[in-house]
Design goal:
CATH superfamily of the largest domain: Alpha/Beta hydrolase fold, catalytic domain
Keywords: Transferase
Pfam families: Abhydrolase_1
Structural class: alpha/beta
CATH class of the largest domain: Alpha Beta
Number of strands: 10
Shape: globular
Strand content: 15-25%
Order of helices and strands: EEEEEEHEHEHHHHHHEHEHH
Distance between the termini: 43 Å
Radius of gyration: 19 Å
GO molecular function, one term: homoserine O-acetyltransferase activity
Strand order of the largest sheet: 1-2-6-3-7-8-9-10
CATH topology of the largest domain: Rossmann fold
Number of domains: 2
Largest sheet: 8 strands, mixed
Protein name: Homoserine O-acetyltransferase
Length: about 325
């Protein structure tokens, strides 16, 4: 069931005040009867994490790795993400927003639901950046922080590509379609496209890779709003958990949760080397930090494609006893 949450006069980090309308969903066990897992969606995602239309049904569901028969699953829509097409939900002043604002709204919803402790917070890409932001607020006790194919900061590479996306979204005559074409080349890799298409053409002599890009451009254009795309792309650029910390090492000293980093070795969006650098920085200050790496030719989207590998990475975390964590269950892959 989709539930609505409204904040009448929410103060953004930028200083402006705004009406916030968003939605959230609950799956699995009833609140108060089981450990709670919060799942954050990525740029074009939403709170539909499981079920027939669920974007993460391979991972979340009955007898899946994140088992709805064992856990209460919460997923909160980023305000303005387009899941509700009602114009009241649209955010036009997108550059006033920061990802930390979304994390603060998550805290408000969790407090409203009476949740003060989470077994895990997990998310990929933008959703993983939001995992970091929520942890940095220290408003909710979290046992496991699981950011996937993401980092705690917006790198120069990410900022550069989001700038290109923003320019396309604000200047193109076909903005969603054109921006998606550019984005798909970041989410995959040259090897992935070579394996998939091998320079083949269709019956009209059009390269199949071009048809594939057009398909994804049209698909997103048919289900996504321009205002949502502008907002979500902008939020990627605002990730930075060091607002209240002097360094990532300082952050590590005050976060008690187990931190499970998951990189993708071929990721061209959130580079694996940056995530491994974060791992090394955290390990100098904190023992309960772990890293796993998805091996794939498919790049950033591998966190959605390589479900078998991700299941193997997440399984030891979600099979542990909820209050007695045994570190020997962790998979840690070293380069």
């Amino acid at each position: 069931m989709i539930s609505e949450f409204i904040i009448e006069d929410f103060k953004l980090t930028s200083g402006s005040k705004t009406l916030v309308k968003t939605t959230y969903q609950q799956f699995g066990k009833a609140l108060g009867t089981a450990p709670i897992v919060l799942i954050n969606h990525a740029l074009t995602g939403n709170s539909n994490v499981t079920g027939a239309q669920g974007w993460w049904s391979a991972i979340v569901g009955d007898n899946k790795v994140i088992d709805t028969q064992r856990f209460t699953i919460l997923s909160i829509d980023v305000p303005g993400n387009g899941f509700n097409v009602n114009s009241d939900y649209t955010i036009k002043n997108y550059k006033d927003w920061q990802l930390v604002d979304v994390a603060k709204i998550q805290v408000r919803i969790l407090e409203y639901l009476g949740v003060n402790e989470l077994f895990a917070v997990v998310g990929g890409s933008l959703g993983g950046q939001l995992v970091w932001e929520l942890a940095a607020l220290k408003a909710i006790k979290i046992a496991h922080i699981i950011p996937i194919a993401t980092d705690w900061k917006a790198t120069d590479w990410l900022l550069a590509n989001c700038k290109i996306q923003d320019s396309i979204l604000n200047n193109s005559t076909n903005p969603i379609y054109d921006a998606r074409l550019h984005a798909m080349t970041l989410y995959r890799t040259p090897r992935s496209l070579k394996q998939k298409f091998e320079r083949e053409r269709d019956e009209d002599s059009i390269f199949k890779v071009e048809n594939w890009l057009s398909y994804h451009g049209n698909l997103l254009q048919n289900r996504f709003q321009l205002a949502s795309y502008k907002l979500m792309n902008h939020l990627l650029t605002t990730a930075n958990v060091l607002r209240n910390y002097t360094s990532i090492k300082d952050f590590a000293q005050v976060i008690s949760a187990d931190i499970h980093l998951v990189s993708v070795d071929s990721d061209l969006f959130f580079l694996a080397e940056d995530i491994w650098e974060t791992y090394i920085d955290l390990c100098t200050e904190k023992d309960n930090v772990f890293i796993s790496e998805i091996k794939s030719i498919h790049g950033h989207d591998a966190f959605l494609i390589e479900t078998a590998q991700l299941q193997n990475i997440l399984k030891p975390i979600f099979e542990t006893k909820t209050h007695e964590h045994n570190h020997k269950h962790h998979i840690v892959w070293n380069r």
